[in-house]
Amino acid sequence: MRSKIYALIAAGTLVLSVQSGCKKDFLDKTPFNQVTADKITDAAGAEKLVAGMYDAMYNDYNIWDFMTNGDVMSDNAYAGGDNPANIQIDLFTVTSTNGNVARDWKGLYTDIKNANEVLEIIPTIADASLDAGNRRNQMLAEASGIRAAQYFNIVRLYGAAPLILKTATTLAETQPSKATVDAIYEQIIKDLEFALANANTTAVNKGIFTKGVANALLAKVYATKPVKDWTKVNQYCDATIAGGYSLFGNFSGLFDPANKNNSEAIWEMQFDGNGGRHGNWMPGIITGTGWKRFNTPSNDLVKAYDDEGDLVRKNASILFKDVSSDGWSDAYWSKSNYPFINKYRADDKSDNYKIRLADIILLKAEAVNELSSAGWSASKLLVDQIRRRVNLGGTPAADQAAMRLAIEKERRLELAFEGHRWFDLLRTDRAIAVMNAQKDGSGNSLNYNVTAPELLFPIPQQEQDRNPNIK
């Protein structure tokens, strides 16, 4: 019996409100700038098509579920709140009818559909101005990159899944079989290599897919695919690091809304807050009083910060409040000193989610360590670079095995609540061991009893019912 108790998507699906702590209302809206294929005859229409592809990405997955999947499913956070779908994810009791599982599948495949439309339509537009300055190929690169990014999310969450590379025109094409994990990774790499060759080096804002994003994702893909290629990881990490990014001087300042799109950001969702088209409602459901918020930092993560003496990252990542007067209970924390996630702070719903340089520097450290048994010493220099920013001394790791664990820990403390932890544990084959060792604040086992089949989401039941080829 489990003792743990509580507690770049649908096209243009925007969250309108969060009511009463746990109830969310949604409305499907067509993006304001979406155009139909038969109306796209010139460069202006092509730009609207590409803008619509980006516009549709501001949805539940990139506002909220990326963190629930990456941190609640890991040892970083409890589900909190009272949402049954989140609690299933936390307790490893996910079923095929889980609402989060269904909306993530729908959202990610909708993004892929939008990217496919760009890849199909842009080459047919007979407007010569698209070829000035290589704009046509840049558009195709951006769509290829988005498609790759979302297939990367799909294969990590669901494993084998349909590989859809064009708009369906027949009934059979609407009911595709699952592609193998290897085939999906092969297509991801193909798309990212095309994006790398043709995307812009820089962009007007960091929400646009650039060469730097392609390099970063290629590094992450080669570190994650079933047969890892650490030479490629190192290569693409180096290319990313050389791309003009730099560590932001103040760790806490990374998450100050005034410092969005800073020097460390490689790819950043551009939320524009209250009154805009892309409000990020997530901060309002992870911090505050009145009702029990979601994604509560875990005892184990707080202990990890304390054991390391890592006050800078702990305080930047977790905020403790007295919520004794709130009328709810919690099995893990005293309400007089209750933890909330502190990396998303904008009251006007304008917090951005980002892929950032520290992630890639630590991934390079991992590659260097894996490429040679003596690589740990060069890896140490990279890890210590990250630690110096938060006033910590050098890592004591002094061999390859110790360095593996040191990098795992460093990534956890650095990237908590940014959606990485669960996927780090998966790709290093550490998920089962780490999760089954979890204890509460009193040292009692949480009895997750995780086994291999629970490491991936099931295909949503509604998709199984619709498509007999993926049951």
Features:
471 residues, mainly alpha, Serine Threonine Protein Phosphatase 5, Tetratricopeptide repeat, two-stranded antiparallel sheet, 17 helices, 8 strands, globular
C-alpha Rg (nearest Å): 22 Å
Poorly predicted residue ranges: 1-34
Task: Give the terminus-to-terminus CA distance.
Answer: 29 Å
Content-based structural category: mainly alpha
Which geometry do the CA atoms define?
A: globular
Query: What count of domains describes the coordinates?
Result: 1
Tally of helical segments = 17
Write down the CATH class: Mainly Alpha
Strand order of the largest sheet: 1-2
Helix and strand sequence = EEHHEHHHHHHEHEHHEEEHHHHHH
CATH architectural designation: Alpha Horseshoe
Describe the structure.
This protein has 471 residues and is mainly alpha-helical. The protein has 17 helices and eight strands. It has one domain (13-470): Serine Threonine Protein Phosphatase 5, Tetratricopeptide repeat (Alpha Horseshoe). Helix content is 45%, strand content 8%. A two-stranded antiparallel ribbon has the order 1-2. Helix 5 runs antiparallel to helix 6 (181-198) and helix 6 (181-198) runs antiparallel to helix 7 (211-224). The chain starts with 12 loop residues before the first strand and ends in a 5-residue tail after the last helix.
